[in-house]
Every structure is written in C-alpha cells, then in structure tokens.
C-alpha cells in the first residue's frame, strides 16, 4: 500500500525519467503509468494523490531537491541538476 511519503520518491523518479523536468501533467501521467496498481490499492490516497503530489513537490523544494517555483517556468517541475541521482530523505 502506497503512502504520501512514497510520492516524493516517485516524483523524483518521474522527473528523472523525463530528463530532470516535466509539466505537472506529464509527471502525473508518468506516475499513473508506473504506479496505477499501487495507487488503486492505497485506500484514500487513491482519491487524493494528485493533490498530495503537489505537497510532495513542495517538500522536495524545501529540501532543495527540486527548483523553486520562482526558478522554474510556470507549470513545470524541475529537479536541481545535482540531485538527479539523490533519493528523498
């Protein structure tokens, strides 16, 4: 069963697979493609994951894993280049 904490790892994986940056829509499509079964078996998270992924992005920005909103184009999420091989901790 997936948890909100898994979303940070999945988000890093998705952005890495997308070359370090991607639109929110592309990231969510990637997560769904890779983790549909996990999400469907995650209870309430199934109904909130697209909201919760935004909070995961916020946490990763505070950890300096993702670029800030001010540093990225609108509606684009980006990893900080030196973090593409890090995991969320």
Q: Radius of gyration in whole Å, from Cα?
A: 12 Å
Low-confidence stretches: none
Architecture, according to CATH?
Orthogonal Bundle
The CATH topology: Arc Repressor Mutant, subunit A
Helix content: 55-70%
The assigned structural class equals: mainly alpha
CATH class: Mainly Alpha
How many β-strand runs?
Answer: 2
Q: Terminal Cα separation, in Å?
A: 19 Å
Percent of residues in β-strands? 5-15%
**Major beta sheet, strand line-up:** 1-2
Written as H for each helix and E for each strand, in order along the chain, the element string is HEHHE
Q: Note the main sheet.
A: 2 strands, antiparallel
CATH superfamily name? MukE-like family, C-terminal domain
Outline type: globular
Mean pLDDT: 93
- Number of domain modules: 1
Question: What is the count of DSSP helices, taking H or I runs of 4+ residues?
Answer: 3
Description:
This protein is mostly helical and 89 residues long. It has a single domain, classed as MukE-like family, C-terminal domain (Arc Repressor Mutant, subunit A). It is 55% helix and 7% strand. It has a two-stranded antiparallel ribbon. Helix 1 (4-17) crosses helix 3 (45-62). It is globular. The protein starts with a helix and ends in an 11-residue tail after the last strand. The relative contact order is 0.22. The model has no long low-confidence stretch (mean pLDDT 93).
